Give the backbone structure.
Amino acid sequence: MSVGFIGAGQLAQALVRGFSAAGVIATHRITASSPDTELPTVQQLRKLGVNFTTSNKETVSRCDVLFLAVKPHIIPFVLDEIGPDIEDRHLIVSCAAGVTISSIEKKLQQYRNSPKVMRCMTNTPVVVREGATVYATGTHAEVEDGKLLEQLMASVGYCTEVEEDLIDAVTGLSGSGPAYAFLAVDALADGGVKMGLPRRLAVRLGAQALLGAARMLLDSEQHPGQLKDNVCSPGGATIHALHVMESGGFRSLLINAVEASCIRTRELQFLADQEKISPAAIKKTTLDQVLQQPGVSADAVGVRTRGISVFNSTNPRFKKN
Amino acid sequence: MFLIGFIGAGNMAFGIAKGMLSGNVLPVNIKVSAPSSTNLGRFQELGMSVTHSNPEVVCGSDVVFVAVKPHLVPHVLSEVSRHVTKKQIIVSVAAGVTLALLEELLPENSIVIRLMPNLPCLVQEGALLFARGANAKPEDGALLRSLLLCCGLVEEGPEAWIDIHTGLSGSGVAFVYLFAEALAEGAVKMGMPSALAHSIASQTVLGAGRLLRDSGKHPAQLRSEVCTPGGTTIYGLHTLEQGGLRASVMAAVESATERARELGRK
C-alpha cells in the first residue's frame, strides 16, 4: 500500500513523521506533492525519505490512499486537477476543515461514478503519535476503507469514526485544542516566572503538568471533577488557585473557545458552499502556482474577477447546449 | 434510658427533639424549658414534659441541649452551672459560642460538646456537625451521634470546622433558597405561572438533592449525565458558567465562614 499527500505543509509533515515513528508505513512508500518547493516542510519531508514531486498527478498515479492536505480553499483546484486520474483503487481522504464529503463527491463525480471519499479531522500532535483523529465515511467508501484509515491514524494517536455532522465540533475541540494548551502552558509558565522560576524550567514544568494530568485522566474511569477534588487539600494552595480560575470565568472561556472555533468552521464551510471566496483569501503566489499545473485552468475552476466560484456545479467544460 | 433536656424551646430545639423522637427516645424522657409558654405547646402536643425552670431541666437530664440565642448563653449557664455534674453531657447549639467559653462558664471538668445543626433538622433532613470539648470522650460523641441519627447527617470534626459548616450548611440552606427562587423566576419569565414555577423549583431542588445524596456519585458526574450533547442543559450550564456562578458560590461560603469566625471571636 502506498500513501500520498496532496500538499506538503504542516499537516503532511506531521502525519509523515508520525507514521514513520510508528513504523506503520515505510517513508519510501509515501509521496508528497506541492507546487511550492520553498516550504520548509518540503525539506523536512525530503529528509524523511518521502518522494517529493511538484506534480499532484504523479502522487495520484503512485498512491492508493490520497490525503488531501491542502488548505480548504485550494481543495476545488486540486479536485479538478486530479479528478480525471482517479481510479477504483484510490481512497481520497480529505483533511480540510469545513469541506464536506458531499461537496468533494459532487466534484469528483464529474470524472468518476463512485469516488471513494472519506473525511478526517486530525490534529498536530500526530507528529508525536498523540493525535486525536475522527473520520467520516463517504457514500462509496467501504467498511474496509474505514478500517484501513483507522489503522493508519490509530498508529499516531486516538482515532474513531463519527457522523460527519460532528466534525465541526471536533475541529473546535481537538482540532484547535493543542493551541489552547500551548496558550495555557505559556501563561502557566509566565506565572511560574513571575513567582521566580527560570523560563525554561517553568515551561517544562507547565507542559509536564498538563501532560501528566491528561495521562491520569485518560487512564482513569473517574470524572475530571473527581480528579480535581483529589488534588485539592482542604484550605490548601490548589483550591485557592481554583477559586481564582473560577472567578475569572475559566470554564466558560474554554466553552466559548470551542464554540467559536466550531462556529467559524461552519462559517467557512458555508462560505465554501455559497461558492464565493474572495481572491484575497487565496495567496496570489499560490494561486499562480496552482494555475500553472497541467490540467488546471482559470476557466475550469471558475476564477472570476470578482469572487471565485469554488464549487461551481455548472463546470464550463461540461456545458450543455 | 437516657433523659434529655432542652433549655430553650425554639426551632432548633424542636427540630432536634422531633428527630430524637423518630429514633429511640420516648417523649416522656424529654423535658423542655422556656421562659414563656408560647413555644412550649408544640412540645407538649408530642408528649414531652415542659417547664419554666432551667435548673429543673438540668437536674433531671443526662444530656442537656443549650438551645437559646447566643447572647443568652452566658446568662443561662451561670444560672444552671451549680447543678451541672461531671456525668452530664452539655450540648450547645449556639452559633459563635466557643468550647472555650462554654467550659469557662461551666464547672471544671464538665463534658461539653458544641453542635451546629441547620434548619432542615425540622424535617429530619439536617446536616449536623459536632466538636467535642476537652473532657468529652469519644463515647460521649458516640452517644450524641446515636441520639441525633434521625435528625439527618451527623458528623464529628475539630472545632475549627464548625465555622465552615456554618457557612456551608447553616447559611448554605439560604443559598439554596435563593437559587430555587431564581429558578422559578426564570420560568416565570419564560411564561409559567409563579405558583407552579415555585412548586416545581422546590421539587427540582429536592429531587436533585436526593439523587446526589443517594447515588454516591460525584456531582460533576451527575451533571455530565444530565447533559445530552447539544441539548438544553449544556446550553443552560454554559450560561451559568458565564455568569461565574461557581466562583460566587465559593465566595459566599467563604464570606459566611469568615463572618462566623469573626462572631466567634467577639
Notes: Chain A has a mean pLDDT of 88.
